[in-house]
């Protein structure tokens, strides 16, 4: 097995230098635009150029994350970003948007394409499809088990990348729409508000139902057969990056999981650790009581008296270290800096392991109780433990490689580089020391100075071993190098595919997951009926529907695609040739070339390059993103070469997750469907637990029927899935929507906002 790549994050150049010093084989980072960590410091072009040049001098790699979805008006800036990556000799790009993939394939083929975890690849079929599309590497969903990872990693000639340490999202990455729909700040555009960290009231209790612990696979990384082992943390400090990189470098080098190094990480920044679902289902992945950095556990409160805290410490504690205490009833741990400490009434600078230490509390300390857990959240000793070396500013930069040929004749010396040449005339006689004369030529032309290039190969033709004066060689070199112009390697925005079919009047579609919802509808009013299936769906009711109007929809998340094999085979054999796909796995399991394929909204069609790529894949229709704004949607309905679907009514899944909030143990779980009523700051939500999957919805449906009458897609779509409906309620709602009237108490998401 080839050596695995340890991949570390860099939110700024200092974190990048720390990662390289402590053993990262590669670093991933973001630019000022199109990064899924938009609030990190990120890199401008000079910093990126300097960093990649330095990394390459160490034989390490640099990947840039352009892993957000782009609106139509942002495509010119994408070209600028890709040109920067080209000039800075980036090794690969991590992307989410299908439009970015098309631009790279057509105009920047020299880059490796890595499929971001935002593309929600969670099974072998999804990975296989992206490989067919030209992706060299797939970053796997964090939710996968060891067995699932091994199955995908076994795909020949496909690199795989798995997260091994850091923060976890509650929802599958790429399928979280909570921040976008509720707050107007899209996680798919790098602006997440982290609503999963908020408190929610459920069944009379208020706690952090969706706040995930941190992933820490530790020694388990040795059981991962992937190409690249990825540390999360582009918003973390250089100190954190250094400590985590160092910890896993030690493990990968066979030195074991050092407990002291693990303690350092917990002191710098750490929520409680878990292994997520690496070993199978685990309900202990959510920290319901507290959010944020906790630190290293060092003891429990024994006594609070006269403003002093007393406890037995499990770790060294020094003056000016930071402590945090889990105070019951508080959302976040209570933290403070140690100013005074004593042991046996003797004032000390540092307490040792096993000491009963007394520490003065600040004046504003909350109610603390015996047994409250205490954490070392900041250590002066640890802060000084991770020094790292870095190059002098501006010492490294990227240059283009050139080849030069020098020919020495009796009456002249000629130097040639491609189409550029220089000539120095004179009389040249045999050298007394031919080797010294050869070295003089090599030394002269190796001096590229502040030019935009470096000498890759020098060929010397001097068959008679003639002597060449150093002054003449230097003048010849200066003249040649002044003439050389290294052209920038750049790309252009490829032309989007233009529409050839004639656009007709907008029609309506309806999507359901229960065919009984259609009972009171006049189906003649609909161009299509979309049926969302599950592996165990009863498809007998489809026979009562006009087959030419039926489109079969597959879900976005499917951990075991083989379960769909039977029902898909029966539907295909029954003549159902219209299908809707919500994730890449479906495109590998369906005979796309023989079917009428529509892309659902979870594939994020926000620009014409993405829609053109969908065309080249084989789609006939696309559904516009639920996260998008009206201005961009109007732009796309006008320019799209494919037929467009605009959803005007839906219960939007804000979270789609494997993080179960049921109180029972998995072993005794009754499975089946269970609904929860939630509240957060007065806002009501619904949560559905079904088949080991959680989905969270706003209590109110998304509805833009009133505004939609001003837009001209090919189809208006209304969805009645997930939440329970009655045929009568569906019929009444449909009547309102077809008259372009909103339902009562609806939300508009980003549609009426100016940006996301």
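Sequence proposed for the structure above (756 residues):
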């Amino acid at each position: 097995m080839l050596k695995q790549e340890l991949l570390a994050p860099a939110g700024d150049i200092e974190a990048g230098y720390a990662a390289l010093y402590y053993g990262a084989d590669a670093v991933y980072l973001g630019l000022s635009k199109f990064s899924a960590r938009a609030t990190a410091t990120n890199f401008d072009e000079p910093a990126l150029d300097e960093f990649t040049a330095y990394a390459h001098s160490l034989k390490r790699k640099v990947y840039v994350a352009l892993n957000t979805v782009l609106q139509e008006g942002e495509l010119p800036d994408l070209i600028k970003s890709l040109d920067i990556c080209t000039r800075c000799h980036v090794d690969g790009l991590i992307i989410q948007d299908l439009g970015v993939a098309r631009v790279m394939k057509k105009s920047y083929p020299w880059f490796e394409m890595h499929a971001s975890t935002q593309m929600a690849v969670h099974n072998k079929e999804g990975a296989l499809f992206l490989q067919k599309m030209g992706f060299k590497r797939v970053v796997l969903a964090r939710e996968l088990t060891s067995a699932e990872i091994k199955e995908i990693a076994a795909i020949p000639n496909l690199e795989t990348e798995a997260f091994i340490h850091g923060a976890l999202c509650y929802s599958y990455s790429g399928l979280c729409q909570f921040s976008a729909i509720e707050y107007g700040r899209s996680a798919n555009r790098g602006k997440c508000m982290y609503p999963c960290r908020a408190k929610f009231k459920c069944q009379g209790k208020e706690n952090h139902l969706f706040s995930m612990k941190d992933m820490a696979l530790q020694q388990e990384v040795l059981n991962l057969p992937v190409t690249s082992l990825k540390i999360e943390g582009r918003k973390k400090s250089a100190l954190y990056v250094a400590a985590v990189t160092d910890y896993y470098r030690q493990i990968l080098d066979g030195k074991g999981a050092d407990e002291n190094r693990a303690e350092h990480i917990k002191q710098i920044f750490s929520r409680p650790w878990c292994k997520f679902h690496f070993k199978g289902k685990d309900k202990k992945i959510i920290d319901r009581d507290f959010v944020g950095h906790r630190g290293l556990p060092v003891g429990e409160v024994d006594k609070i008296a006269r403003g002093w805290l007393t406890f037995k410490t499990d770790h060294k504690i020094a003056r000016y270290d930071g402590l945090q205490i889990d105070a019951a009833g508080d959302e976040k741990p209570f933290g403070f800096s140690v100013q005074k400490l004593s042991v046996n009434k003797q004032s000390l600078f540092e307490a040792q392991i096993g000491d009963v230490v007394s520490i003065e509390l600040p004046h504003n300390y909350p109610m603390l109780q015996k047994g409250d857990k205490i954490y070392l959240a900041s250590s002066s000793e640890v802060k000084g433990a991770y020094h790292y070396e870095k190059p002098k500013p501006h010492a490294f930069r990227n240059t283009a490689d050139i080849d030069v040929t020098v020919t020495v004749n009796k009456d002249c010396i000629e130097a040639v580089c491609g189409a550029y040449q220089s000539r120095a005339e004179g009389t040249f006689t045999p050298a007394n020391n031919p080797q010294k004369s050869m070295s003089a030529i090599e030394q002269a032309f190796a001096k590229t100075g502040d030019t935009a290039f470096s000498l890759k190969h020098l060929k010397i033709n001097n068959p008679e071993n003639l002597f060449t004066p150093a002054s003449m060689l230097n003048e010849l070199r200066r003249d040649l190098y002044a003439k050389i112009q290294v052209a920038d390697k750049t790309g252009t925005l490829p032309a989007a595919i233009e529409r050839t079919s004639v656009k007709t009047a907008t029609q309506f579609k309806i999507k359901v997951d229960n065919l009984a919802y259609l009972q009171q509808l006049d189906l003649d009013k609909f161009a299509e009926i979309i049926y969302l299936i599950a592996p165990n769906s009863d498809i007998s009711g489809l026979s009562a529907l006009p087959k030419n109007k039926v489109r079969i929809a597959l879900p976005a998340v499917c951990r075991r695609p083989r379960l769909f094999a039977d029902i898909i085979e029966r539907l295909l054999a029954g003549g159902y040739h219209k299908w809707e796909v919500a994730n890449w796995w479906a495109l590998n399991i369906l005979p796309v070339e023989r079917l009428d394929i529509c892309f659902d909204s979870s594939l994020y069609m926000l620009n014409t390059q993405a829609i053109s790529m969908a065309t080249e894949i084989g789609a006939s229709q696309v559904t516009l993103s639920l996260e998008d704004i009206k201005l961009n949607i109007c732009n796309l309905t006008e320019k799209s070469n494919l037929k467009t679907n605009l959803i005007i009514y839906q219960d939007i899944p804000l979270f789609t997750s494997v993080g179960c909030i049921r109180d029972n143990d998995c072993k005794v779980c009754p499975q089946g469907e269970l609904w929860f009523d939630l509240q957060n700051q007065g806002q009501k939500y619904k949560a559905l637990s079904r088949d080991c999957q959680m989905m969270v919805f706003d209590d109110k449906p998304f509805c833009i029927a009133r505004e939609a009458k001003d837009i001209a897609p090919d189809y208006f779509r209304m969805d009645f899935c997930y939440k329970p409906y009655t045929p009568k309620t569906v019929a009444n709602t449909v009547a309102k929507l077809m008259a372009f009237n909103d339902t009562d108490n609806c939300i508009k998401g980003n549609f009426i906002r100016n940006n996301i």
